[in-house]
Hints:
Helix 9 links the parallel strand 2 and strand 3. The strands form five sheets. Strands 15-14-11-12-13-16-20-18 form an eight-stranded antiparallel beta sheet, sandwiched between helices. Strands 3-2-1-4 form a four-stranded parallel beta sheet, sandwiched between helices. The chain has 20 helices and 20 strands. It is globular. It is of the alpha+beta class. It has helices at residues 4-9, 52-57, 74-79, 86-95, 100-106, 110-113, 118-128, 144-152, 167-172, 190-205, 219-228, 236-243, 245-254, 271-278, 301-317, 341-344, 399-415, 448-456, 460-468, 547-568, and strands at residues 132-136, 156-161, 178-181, 210-212, 262-265, 282-286, 296-298, 319-321, 324-326, 348-352, 357-366, 369-378, 390-393, 421-430, 433-440, 484-491, 496-497, 513-518, 525-526, 536-544. The termini are far apart.
Amino acid sequence: MATITERMASVDLKDVVVVGSAPTNVLKANGDELADYPLNPYRRRGGQECNPDVAASLGKSMGKSLGTSNYLSSAVIGSLPKGLSTTDKLKILQAVPPSPAREMLKQLPAATVTSRTPEGKRLRRQALKGAVMVFVTAGYSGKRFIFEKAKELGVRSVVLDGPNGWVQLLEKDKIIEKFVPIDFSDAETVFDRCLEALKKVEKSIGQLDGITTFCELAVPLASRLAESLGLPCNSSEAVDMARDKHKTREVLEKAGLPSPKHFRILSADDLSKAAAHVGFPAVIKPVSGAASIGVIRVDSVADLTKSYTRVVSDMKKARVVAGALVEGNADDDDSVTGDAGSWIDLVIMMEEYLDGSEVDCDLIFDDGEPYYGAVTDNWPTVEPYFNETGSNCPSILSQEAQIDLLQLSVRCVQALGFKLGVFHVECKFTSRGARLIEVNCRMGGGPVRDTNLLVWGVDLVEEHLMACAGVPVRPLIVPKPLAHLGEYSVNAPKTGTITTFDFLAKYKDDPEVLYAKQLIPVNSRCVCVKDGLPTWVCEIMITNRNVHENIKKVNQMITKISEDLNIAIV
Length: 570
């Protein structure tokens, strides 16, 4: 009989649907357009969304706005209640009966359910099948694969989202069981209305098994809803600490973990103190929020002063859309403001610049312990903006370096108090060893799910759903990679308007190219690095049995695509 490793290694990559970042159809049968969130081209790997109004403010006309009721706002985030006390959580847990999934687990042999065997996986899927899982916002339509996977696993998905959201197509196609419209415009009452809606859901379709989200800014809301209903979750305190970069550094220091020198800048008056404490080179970034908005390298006091002024201005213009933080229009004058400034308080952290290679460490936790970890090498960013470019997996770092990075990532997640689910941890392997950049308490966006599935056979979506339903997480581990991947998001080589992507067609028949896709519509305006934060214009992913050959081929493709873009952008 073939071993699980042999069976997994025999899977044809053509049988695996590689998602990429492209949005899917959002038109109703009558041709009406539903609310969708075009991919924010400045942060693809972060999985960020951007609605048509914000896209227009970025100079990218991608559709019409369907109202503020369709996405989370900074006011919603700011109005959320504090996390429950340990005593209150215990009272709720004692009062709430076990969910159906956890009741089924009691009937299954524990030793087998918690084993890393095909039979253990079968039993875990059996416990998950039929579970009622609530998703707080669906994000942009490119995340459709998450709900298709949930459907494949037999999960009964319920989605809380804006009233005109594209997610209603999932209900029509019977991919999800129920779409619950929530008007996000009345910020002060969103939490209570979500809670009330979930109680009605329980009465109509049955007891809930879990609550989750795959959208960055929806995590605080999802964690608080799960806490209030006694469902498996990470504490809201842990979520809030991870989302505040300064608090994260403080936690690491208290835990005795290596942390770069840092200083919290409350106003321009703190700049000289920050420079003296941290030194140069350094990086400044907002203490809260997501993405690379406002993240800039500074090499002198003059750089710091200029960049601080710019970052504060940029953050005042930033907006919160569809559970994601997106940039405002850089061409707006300082009188124009977005809706994110009050939430992030415009507090900036300065920390020492870390040398070395940047990596992603994707982790899966269960009951406070790690059961999976994999390292993906990130390629050099476009500085000074730290715009991400590409990656390869498996990592080409030494085994010792990878172990150091994974151990630090695990200890950081544990120090913050997280217990379960998937985490996307960004680190650097510096001349002094592994150092943390940030902990994201969610699955990474862009190619992250594809990478872990194709290279290691681990589906982060499936494992996260199990964790949130209280089902043990024990992904099957293979001793060597099933494939070697290289992927790249091509930044605009010059500023102008993209006139065609026909040049990508030549890669369609290449068996090693999993995809070569455009990321923005034809006739969109592009910006190159010398003129501002560069625009991602297309993405590629290739595979073969040698990671070094992958890297070589990706670089060859980048050179050719950049040549084509220089002609296509006018």
